[in-house]
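User: Can you help me understand a structure? I only have the sequence.
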Amino acid sequence: MRKNKRKLASAEKAEKRRRQKEYMTIFINGKQKRVKRPPTIDGMDVDEFICINADPIWLHQNEMWECMTIHEESCDSQQPGPPDPGARRFSDEEDPFTLPAGDGKR
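Assistant: Let's start by predicting it. Here is the structure, written out as tokens:
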């Protein structure tokens, strides 16, 4: 005859839930190994969370250059603001960096 499986006590259940949150099971060489889970924030990897939510100044101060390129791409995709009404517009023939023809003074 086989022995009946006993039910876990509430303390044992709590310990099992805590272990499952803290560790995960992976297979190495066909054997199960228990390793600590990587830290997450709101279910995201910590580095991914920082890249999404950090401002460019903080990224620069902490030398996270790879995240700055991601942040710049997302900022570039936003629509530009309204044009400055006081800005002068130049035509294609007009070069804004040369002096007008009449000014020979230097």
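Now, to help you interpret it: Residues 40-75 form one domain. The first strand starts at residue 23 and ends at 28. Let me know which part you'd like to focus on.
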